[in-house]
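Moderator note: this is an archived Q&A kept for reference. The question asked for a predicted structure of one protein chain; the sequence and the answer are reproduced below.
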Amino acid sequence: MDSMAAWEVARPGPIAGRPLRAVRRAVPAPADDELLVRVRACAVCRTDLHVAEGDLPPHRSPVIPGHEVVGEVTALGAAVTGWAAGERVGIAWLRHTDGMCAYCRRGQENLCPASRYTGWDADGGYAEYAVVPAEYAYRLPAGYDDAHLAPLLCAGIIGYRALRRAELPPGGRLGIYGFGASAHLTAQVALAQGATVYVMTRSAEARELGLRLGAAWAGGADERPPEPLDAAILFAPVGDLVPPALSALDRGGTLAVAGIHLSDIPVLNYQRHLFQERQLRSVAANTRDDGREFLALAAAHPLAVTVTPYPLDRADEALADLAADRVEGAAVLIP
């Protein structure tokens, strides 16, 4: 195949203005250290929406979004070892770090100043083919089909890191604000670890999903849970939810903000929101070790992954539905 179908963002703007456009592109050739991957499924992430709308400033223009890719290796660069044509492979958000900076050396490659990302710095998976550096590709667990694996590669991994950043104690009480693709996976991980989970979200359908998955209670986005929380994770990119989430924490509790973009946070009151050693933490991407640990966990403890499939030629519709909270679980593009 000489060319492929793809979607690109050339001029970021409001999703109503359809910043995604369908194009034909040449099939990329893998560099010496890369794999060429035929895309079988690509989940749609809220970060893709931030790229399309310009909340994240363009790093490459035009760019093909998409960083939750499950595919098949079809060609290998000359320097690649350890992979073979026909193997199933995962492509995720992080695709390059320098390996030499202070952050990389101390195990925090997610903070590397030279880091680059799939679907932002390089073309991603809203296409029939994509390339990935072999050192940043993931081996995938059995027991999941392609569509149900795709959301694990960002929604799952970033939720796992956010849960770690929230420092939920064993058997603790976890609040989850926003309940989309990442949250519905993180909730299951927390429940498997013995937590009590409370869901706060504006979507009635998402509240119902949370209860089906085992949440003890589900309410509106700014409702107060029925008991103080030991930890909380904010998945909704809504800064207005930070004060009520902090107020819901028990003494010593931690709120982790999982998104790469957040609207402005209102003024905080020290006594009401932060005193008694409450903490507010951000989450910046993930390390490859986070990804490997989470995928091993998903292999050992099968997760119920809720997906809404879309054909690749409806990628713009899928992104619009995500923006309007019309997607249950994760939207997944199927070429």
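Archived answer notes: The chain has ten helices and 16 strands.
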